[in-house]
């Protein structure tokens, strides 16, 4: 990979891509309340790649769902590019990639990527059929699947299916990509390959990415900053700046600096777990 190194923070000007101030999310239930997120503070610059890492139940998906306006915070402030999450959703300011690819088996790869654009075609924001097709092909090119437009999801590997769902999330050319453990179900080699592809795509497009993962290596390799979270209650324990140079590749993963940064993330995770001594 020889793409030019991006400026890792605040590529754009103006508002942060995401702004959290004392953000809280409490789920009320018959068995009692769950504090999924407590007093979270974070600003994500335009064009950053942020990973959220932490133990199961620490609120990673909750934070992503709040950003996507799928749930409403119980307290604090959350802005997406200076707008409310509801407004950002209306303007299709973000794309969301789920843990499972969630593709429609009876539609071809191209038609899966076209789906959100076809849905929009019925609204006021009209886009001609030719323009929609061109956009979908362009997104498939971005994820390296231009030769697979006519295939069906069941004819593709898990990694390829996940790439199709990334292409679909990019269909509206959103500035922000929210990704919830997109490679969690894949084997290590495929995941490392897709990490490289995602980094290339990020460099090529300049999007802001918020990426949920359980993988320390994955988080360090991909990110400009890693946000370490802890559970009960869900909180941001610390943020690690990742100053690894670009392009990042196989050697990056073997460098002493990579090891140091991974150790720093691991230490924060252990602190959050209360495993300070010898874990
Ligand atoms: N809709 C909901 N109703 C009630 N509780 C919820 C709801 N969604 C999440 N929770 C609770 O909020 C907490 C945070 O959940 P969340 O899914 O955000 O964690 P996570 O860090 O993404 O976990 P994982 O790594 O296992 O996906 C958990 O205790 C969970 O049980």
Annotated CATH homologous superfamily of the largest domain: P-loop containing nucleotide triphosphate hydrolases
Note the total helix count: 9
Structural class: alpha/beta
DSSP summary, beta strand count: 9
The tally of structural domains comes to 2
> At the first level of CATH, what is the class of the largest domain?
Alpha Beta
Order of helices and strands: EEEHEHEHHHEHEHEEHH
Pfam families: ABC_tran
Protein name: NitT/TauT family transport system ATP-binding protein
Domain ABC transporter: 18-256
GO molecular function: ATP binding
Any chance you could write out the topology, listing elements then pairs?
Elements: E1 18-27, E2 34-44, E3 49-53, H1 60-67, E4 75-80, H2 85-90, E5 94-97, H3 109-121, H4 129-142, H5 158-169, E6 176-180, H6 188-205, E7 208-213, H7 216-222, E8 225-230, E9 235-241, H8 250-254, H9 256-273
Parallel strand pairs: 3-7, 3-8, 5-6, 6-7
Antiparallel strand pairs: 1-2, 1-4, 8-9
Helix pairs in contact: 3-4, 3-5, 4-5, 7-9
The structure holds adenosine-5'-triphosphate.
Protein name: NitT/TauT family transport system ATP-binding protein
GO molecular function: ATP binding
Keywords: ATP-binding, Nucleotide-binding, Transport
Overview of the structural elements:
This protein is an alpha/beta fold. The protein folds into 2 domains: 15-37 and 44-93 and 174-273, P-loop containing nucleotide triphosphate hydrolases (Rossmann fold, 3-Layer(aba) Sandwich), CATH 3.40.50; 103-173, no CATH class. Helix content is 36%, strand content 22%. The chain contains 9 helices and 9 strands. The chain has helices at residues 60-67, 85-90, 109-121, 129-142, 158-169, 188-205, 216-222, 250-254, 256-273; strands at 18-27, 34-44, 49-53, 75-80, 94-97, 176-180, 208-213, 225-230, 235-241. The chain has a 6-stranded mixed sheet with strand order 5-6-7-3-8-9, with helices on both faces. A 3-stranded antiparallel sheet has the order 2-1-4, covered by helices on one side. A hairpin with a 4-residue loop joins β8 (225-230) and β9 (235-241). The longest helix has 18 residues, at 188-205. The radius of gyration is 19 Å and the shape is globular. The model is unreliable at 1-13 (pLDDT under 50). Adenosine-5'-triphosphate binds next to β2 and α1.
